[in-house]
Inverse folding.
């Protein structure tokens, strides 16, 4: 089965944005592609939200659910309470649409939340008003504890999540052979469906639901008009509507729906949301039984709560979402309608059986083996740092360009096989600069690069030998000082450079400059921003010899051709030979006054 979050490798680029956004660094970069590692992933969806090329995908389960609906079983929808913020103007129309999709009935996941709240309150009553548990309402938090804080597994609630409790309750009402499909804002709920089949059977995000509705041509605005015209009836929630627990998807909503919510100071319970806040809380939390924590912790990994889940529609304001959810709950409890009340017998069963109510023979939640939490010796880390170009502490800039918080963290990831040296921006920049420096120092011709303000960005010793009245090798330190100086202080033909900013094509000229004959090649480095020029002194013996050889070869070749046509082409060959020899003379004729003789286009080279 495909992982709930996966990477489309053909669309993944070298940006490392997913590494940067992943709170647990569950991304492995290999051959330039960033892949989600299943054993490390906590399914928060941050990588999906931040991937600029949309290479991080959420597994689409629509087709599987459609086949499930055609299986002949009665299939119930467990609808997340955050539906009030996702479809604020058309919840009733959505219920009609879900029935048309083929669901036998629609029930609120908040019913499971009511059962969980009742269980926690009962436990607290029996233990002096305290319940030092971590809520299991957020499956991402559960995965985080199991994989990264296994010592805190005993702190997790002894009851399953609201969705799992809801699934168990629906089966107790309608039979063990029914099907259950969760629809909500959470990717991690797919893991609950995978790990505990039947509790629920499948999980869809709100994004998948919208896609499904579009495929079936079910427009909620049209259905809303039908409701206004009393052409259709609103299907009721089964077994009935939920009450205060519909506030669960908002930070603090779980506590507010319980008796603790009446305490303005909430001295027995604490609500925390957001990845950094949750991680900070777990880092400092002591294992159960240490006596240092007696608060119930409502931890939601998405900032603001489930209303901002990765499977919900992006771009909506958190303030508006929270307002919709709060008003929806207020209207629900003020209406003269029956709302769900947790049956004491089922609550007692939840407290007694815990996870056995959904899974046999396993009891409770077990920590997953931390195969990725390998410890490395300091000398290994130092070797890895050197491999990344960090030879001393001053090289560790901790810039975050690789996606990791520090160079040391990057080195550990490299040792774990999660990162590649090429991810280090500083290392790659230094290597590129080093290669450029070596090339500029060793190339036997003059090179200069200028910006659009005609200031020198870089140059080499050969350039200064030609235009700086320098007749000795120049050290790199001196060349660095020249960077930023006006180009006109060295060459008198800056207008020719200026022309190149509007011409991205490489062009070559011949130039008589003082007592030298130069071949000048202009090229664009960055369009309309950086222009470079190569200056080759073709009056040097080596170049002159090459020119003579080339001209001589042309003469010999021409002569061989004319031997075959000597009768008719003798005069023409003589004329050609004279022209070629004269061109040799012209090629080495330099002005005697030491002045510039102007640019002459050199058409011998083709740069197209």
């Amino acid at each position: 089965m495909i992982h709930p979050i996966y990477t489309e490798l053909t669309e993944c680029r070298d940006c490392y944005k997913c590494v940067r956004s992943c709170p647990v660094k569950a991304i492995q970069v290999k051959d330039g592609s960033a892949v989600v590692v299943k054993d490390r992933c906590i399914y928060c969806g941050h990588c999906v939200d931040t991937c600029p090329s949309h290479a991080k995908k959420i597994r689409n389960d629509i087709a599987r659910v459609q086949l499930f609906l055609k299986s002949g079983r009665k299939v119930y929808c467990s609808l997340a309470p955050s539906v009030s913020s996702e479809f604020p103007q058309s919840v009733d129309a959505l219920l009609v649409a879900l029935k048309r999709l083929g669901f036998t009935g629609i029930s609120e996941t908040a019913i499971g939340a009511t059962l969980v709240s009742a269980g926690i309150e009962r436990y607290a009553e029996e233990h002096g008003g305290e319940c030092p548990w971590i809520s299991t309402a957020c499956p991402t938090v559960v995965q985080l504890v199991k994989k990264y804080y296994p010592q805190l597994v005993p702190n997790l609630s002894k009851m399953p999540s609201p969705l799992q409790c809801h699934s168990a309750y629906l089966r107790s009402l309608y039979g063990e052979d029914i099907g259950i499909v969760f629809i909500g804002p959470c990717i991690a709920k797919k893991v609950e469906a995978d790990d505990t089949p039947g509790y629920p059977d499948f999980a869809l995000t709100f994004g998948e639901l919208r896609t499904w509705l579009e495929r079936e041509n079910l427009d909620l605005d049209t259905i809303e008009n039908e409701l206004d015209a009393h052409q259709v009836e609103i299907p009721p929630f089964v077994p009935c509507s939920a009450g205060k627990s519909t506030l669960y998807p908002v930070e603090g909503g779980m506590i507010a729906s319980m008796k603790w919510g009446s305490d303005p100071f909430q001295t027995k319970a604490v609500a925390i949301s957001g990845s950094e806040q949750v991680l900070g809380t777990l880092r400092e939390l002591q294992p159960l039984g240490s006596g240092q924590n007696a608060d119930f912790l409502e931890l939601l990994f998405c900032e603001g709560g489930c209303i901002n889940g990765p499977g919900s529609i992006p771009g909506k304001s958190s303030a508006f979402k929270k307002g919709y959810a709060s008003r929806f709950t207020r209207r629900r409890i003020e209406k003269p309608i029956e709302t769900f009340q947790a049956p004491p017998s089922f609550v007692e069963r939840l407290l007694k059986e815990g996870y056995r109510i959904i899974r046999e023979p396993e009891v409770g939640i077990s920590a997953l083996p931390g195969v990725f939490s390998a410890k490395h010796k300091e000398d290994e880390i130092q070797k890895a740092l050197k491999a990344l170009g960090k030879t001393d502490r001053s090289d560790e800039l901790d810039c975050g360009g690789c996606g990791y918080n520090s160079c040391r963290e990057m080195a550990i990831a490299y040792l774990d096989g999660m990162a590649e040296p090429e991810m280090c921006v500083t290392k790659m920049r230094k290597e590129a600069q080093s290669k450029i420096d070596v090339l500029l120092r060793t190339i036997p011709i003059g090179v200069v690069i200028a910006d659009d303000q005609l200031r020198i960005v870089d140059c080499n010793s050969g350039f200064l030998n030609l235009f700086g009245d320098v007749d000795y090798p120049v050290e790199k330190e001196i060349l660095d000082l020249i960077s930023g100086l006006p180009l006109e202080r060295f060459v008198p033909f800056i207008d020719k450079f200026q022309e190149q900013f509007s011409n991205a094509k490489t062009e070559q000229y011949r130039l008589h400059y003082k007592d030298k004959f130069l071949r000048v090649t202009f090229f664009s480095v960055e369009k309309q921003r950086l222009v470079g020029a190569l200056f080759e002194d073709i009056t040097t013996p080596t170049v002159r010899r090459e020119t003579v050889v080339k001209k001589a070869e042309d003469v010999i070749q021409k002569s061989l051709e004319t031997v075959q046509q000597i009768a008719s082409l003798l005069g023409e060959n003589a004329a050609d030979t004279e022209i070629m020899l004269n061109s040799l003379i012209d090629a080495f004729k330099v002005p005697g006054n030491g002045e510039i003789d102007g640019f002459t286009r050199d058409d011998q080279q083709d740069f197209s």
